[in-house]
Design goal:
Keywords: Amino-acid biosynthesis, Lyase, Pyridoxal phosphate, Threonine biosynthesis. Belongs to the threonine synthase family. Pyridoxal 5'-phosphate binds at residues 150, 251-255, 406. Residues 85-407 form the Tryptophan synthase beta chain-like PALP domain. The protein is an alpha/beta fold. It has a domain at 92-120 and 224-421: Rossmann fold, CATH 3.40.50.1100. The protein is 38% helix and 14% strand. It is built from 16 helices and 13 strands. It has a six-stranded mixed sheet, sandwiched between helices. Strands 8-7-6-9 form a four-stranded parallel sheet, sandwiched between helices. α4 (150-161) links the parallel β6 and β7. α4 (150-161) runs parallel beside α5 (177-185). The chain is globular. The chain binds pyridoxal-5'-phosphate (PLP) and zinc ion.
């Protein structure tokens, strides 16, 4: 398989190109984001999406087993010998008719993509398998990331899988315990900074530049290449058909950026004939994207994004010492690094942005638990957003919708327990206290 990828700056006034043997994470000429571009003529891409199904027959090969590398012709930036896998991407697209019925949707309309089934329990593994392959390709010995939790868990897992040293930066007091426990158990050097995610993000970039450490945040364009495969698996789960809507939570906006790129490329290659619409859901306490798009009219505009609007907002955040707050800690981010690429995805997918309150998120999370297999709070923002979009007619009850459930229920059990114990939630299901007495106990059996 010939390699035919380059890194290219997304700024149309710059457009600098670099080969994939370098690790930079930002354009050295103008500081903008980098993209991976392929020369498809030099790669043998299957003639139709369903050809990828042949890989199931050879799944004893770890690269064919991987739900990311199964599609490797579509992220062909390194040779097989560099590809790292721990068996990521064995995820399920569940047609959930019970939840659909509860929400007033038609049978067969609602699909839940359980990315919590990944080895470290979140979608982040899709990106890490790709980024670590690039890290191995460039000979990195040490890596780092800033994290609200799941990135650190995934980085720690992949770092020890390929024998790399790793340091993770987390905001003190902000991380869910399930995630912190993983970073420690997988052997990461864990540094808790007195600050929030945005502070960690700033520091980690400085540390990586100064000490020449490989950076694994979603600034890293190779991570996004791996995350494209979530969309391929949704198409696969629908019998190689494209849904009408993809709904995803928006934090650092890596997923939304990757999804738009995935569909753009599939269309360009003639592997799909239409692109689904994308709905990105912010938490109300961390609603930068929603504010900029819906209230300031910010657009991709062919790559000429009005960054003055963005800088004005960030200057205001700084002046007010604003720190985002939401129960959905995985999307508690106010300066999303992939903002520009996300605007491009909105352009490609005729996308929309919504925001939902913590209360809506908690109720939606309980619904995913009651009718499905559960998820962590950030993931449930998708269902909360869907409820709103059904209510106002943005999404019709017979449209085919796929919600990306980004993380596993057990990542953040504290939030689940406090929701159910505090009986005020729409779907609270508190435990019942009983004396250790058979007659008493029988009274509580319903
Ligand atoms: C990282 C993360 C998000 C945010 O994804 P982005 O790609 O940064 O927008 C959402 N949900 C979970 C569970 C996450 O771990
Ligand atoms: Zn540039």
């Amino acid at each position: 398989m010939n390699i035919s990828a380059i890194q290219k700056c997304i700024n149309p006034d710059c457009g600098s190109e670099f080969d994939c043997g370098q690790a930079m994470f930002k354009c050295p000429d103008c500081g903008d984001l980098l993209d991976i571009l392929y020369d498809w003529d030099k790669t043998t891409v299957p003639a139709k999406m369903s050809d990828f199904a042949n890989r199931w027959a050879t799944r004893n090969n770890p690269l064919d087993f991987s739900g990311v590398w199964r599609f490797r012709e579509l992220l062909n930036f390194c040779e097989d010998k560099h590809r790292v896998t721990v068996g990521e991407g064995q995820t399920l697209l569940q047609q959930n008719d019970e939840l659909a019925a509860f929400l007033g949707m038609d049978k067969g309309s609602l699909h839940l993509e359980y990315e919590g089934m990944n080895p470290s329990g979140s979608f982040k593994d899709n990106g890490m398998t790709a980024a670590f392959s690039h890290a191995v390709m460039v000979g990195a010995k040490s890596c780092a990331c800033a994290s609200t939790g799941n990135t650190s868990a995934a980085v720690a897992l992949y770092a020890h899988a390929c024998g790399m040293k790793c340091t993770v930066f987390i905001g003190s007091g902000r991380i869910a315990f399930g995630k912190l426990s993983q970073a420690m158990d997988y052997g990461a050097n864990t540094i808790q900074i007195q600050g929030d995610f945005d502070d960690c993000m700033k520091q980690v970039q400085e540390v990586c530049t100064r000490l020449n450490i490989y950076l694994l945040n979603s600034l890293n364009p190779f991570r996004l290449e791996g995350q494209k495969t979530i969309m391929y698996r949704i198409i696969e789960g629908l019998g190689w058909e494209v849904p009408d809507w993809i709904i995803v939570p928006g934090g650092n906006l890596g997923n939304s950026s990757a999804f738009g790129k995935a569909f753009f490329e599939l269309k360009e290659l003639g592997l799909i004939d239409r692109i689904p619409r994308l709905a990105i859901i912010n938490a109300a306490g961390a609603d930068t994207l929603s504010y900029l798009v819906n209230e300031r009219g910010l657009k991709w505009n062919g790559g000429n994004v009005n960054m003055k609007e963005v800088q004005a907002l960030y200057a205001d955040f700084t002046a007010r010492h604003f720190s985002p707050h939401t129960i959905a800690s995985a999307i508690e981010i106010s300066r999303p690094v992939n903002l520009k690429k996300c605007l491009r995805s909105i352009d490609i997918c005729d996308g929309i942005v919504r925001k939902v309150t913590d209360e809506q998120i908690c109720d939606a999370k309980a619904l995913v638990g009651r009718y499905g297999m559960g998820c962590e709070p950030a993931s449930a923002a998708t269902i909360a957003g869907l409820r709103d979009m059904l209510a106002d007619g943005t999404i019709g009850k017979s449209e085919r919708v796929a919600c990306v459930l980004t993380g596993h229920l057990l990542k953040d059990p504290d939030k689940t327990v406090s929701y159910h114990k505090n009986s005020e939630g729409e779907f609270s299901n508190p435990p019942v206290e009983s004396a250790n007495d058979i007659e008493e106990i029988i009274k509580h059996i319903v």
